[in-house]
Automatic annotation (TrEMBL):
Keyword field contains ATP-binding: no
Intracellular or extracellular location(s): Cytoplasm
Subunit record text: Homodimer.
Protein name (record): Enoyl reductase (ER) domain-containing protein
Transmembrane segments: none
Domain Enoyl reductase (ER) positions: 20-353
GO CC terms: cytosol
GO molecular function: alcohol dehydrogenase (NAD+) activity; S-(hydroxymethyl)glutathione dehydrogenase [NAD(P)+] activity; zinc ion binding
Lineage: Eukaryota, Viridiplantae, Streptophyta, Embryophyta, Tracheophyta
Gene3D superfamilies: Medium-chain alcohol dehydrogenases, catalytic domain, NAD(P)-binding Rossmann-like Domain
Length: 361
């Protein structure tokens, strides 16, 4: 009988050959999925600051590499022992700790790769996802099945940045109705935090950003007050806006230690919470006097907003479909795979929030 098992696929991918260099569109080979793995046809993906950090070589500087981790796709084939997924299922990616977490390279269960260039040389992955490719292979635990009615762009946003921001307010900080929050950095994640805080009923949502243009974006996403640190006076500071007592929760969405300190110090004594979401350099250190923790304040990290993607992503999709959340506004640009370097330029220059990269555009 004819062998019906999945075969290697030739397709296009954006390959990062060296840190900081433009990506090259190349023909690559994607291996079939092994046991517990799924091969996915990527419909669209988007560019996240984590991709920029890895592209610059600040984190896990391994090249050549296929970046990308925020995407929407359709299952093409499944490996042995895969349950809950079948060819044609709409999916986005998921961070799951049931298999070891690593930025890369290597698949979660056996540490080997699934990508090869035209000369037969291995191409490293990122987060065992590598969505800047027309096809990719992921562990089944890294995928979430979505209702096919969810638009691809929305499924893409929910898979990382949108979920991280909303979840940080909703699940990690558990923002309470009537509470006050401060958000340091109004990029995609910070604006999603504002949406999450608004959804939770926060009465004061203070956006902090050096770019004055972010005030307009912030107000559209639920920010009630805006602070530009470069033009601060006593009354326009976060402390001044809260009568000197500080906010109930703060969120650092940049990845700069000095800003993390500012975020911590602007929270209330007794029960203030600071959630760190920004990814900086691996060698960065956060330093605070130990006695400041005696005030009862705390600092928390947050991966994907503390969400349980298998159950929470569909909830977020429903809230977006019913307009309770407006994450679609995060998309400021759309390009095809051939134009992916334009997406990098836009984000590095601070001229975009999320750029959707379509595989077939």
């Amino acid at each position: 009988m004819e062998d019906q098992s999945p075969k290697p696929i030739r397709c296009k991918a954006a390959v990062c050959r060296a840190a900081g260099e433009p990506l090259t569109i190349e023909e690559i080979v994607v291996d079939p999925p092994k046991a517990y793995e799924v091969r996915v046809k990527i419909i669209c993906t988007s560019l996240c600051h984590t991709d920029i950090t890895c592209w610059q070589g600040k984190v896990s500087p391994v090249f050549p590499r296929i970046l990308g981790h925020e995407a929407y796709g359709v299952v093409e084939s499944v490996g042995e022992h895969v349950e809950g997924f079948a060819a044609g299922d709409a999916v986005d990616n998921n961070l799951c700790c049931a298999v070891p977490f690593m930025i890369g390279p290597g698949m979660r269960r056996d540490g080997t790769g699934r990508f090869w260039d035209a000369q037969g040389n291995p191409l490293h992955d990122l987060l065992a996802t590598s969505t800047f490719s027309e096809y990719t292979v992921m562990d089944m635990n890294q995928l979430v099945k979505l209702d096919p009615a969810v638009p691809p762009k929305l499924g893409c946003l929910i898979s990382c940045g949108g979920a991280t921001g909303v979840g940080a307010a909703w699940r990690t900080a558990r923002v309470k109705p009537g509470s006050s929050v401060a958000i340091f950095g109004l990029g995609s994640v910070g604006l999603a935090v504002a949406q999450g805080a608004k959804m939770c009923g926060a009465s004061k949502i203070i956006g902090v950003d050096l770019n004055p243009d972010k005030e307009k974006f912030g107000k559209a996403f639920g920010v009630t007050d805006f602070v530009n640190p470069s033009t601060l006076d006593k009354n326009s500071s976060v402390s001044g806006m809260t009568g000197g007592g500080g906010v109930d929760c703060s969120f650092e969405c940049i990845g700069v230690p000095s800003v993390m300190v500012d975020a911590f110090r602007c929270t209330k004594k007794g029960n203030g919470k600071t959630v760190l979401l920004g990814l900086g350099n691996l060698e960065d250190e956060l330093r605070l006097p130990a006695h400041e923790f005696l005030y009862g304040k705390c600092i928390m990290g947050s991966a994907v907003g503390g969400l349980k993607p298998k159950t929470d992503f569909p909830i977020l999709a429903d809230k977006c479909m019913s307009n309770e959340l407006q994450l679609d506004g995060l998309v400021t640009h759309e390009v095809g795979l051939q134009e992916i370097n334009k997406a990098f330029d836009l984000l590095v220059q601070g001229n975009s929030l999320r750029c959707i990269i379509w595989m077939d555009k």
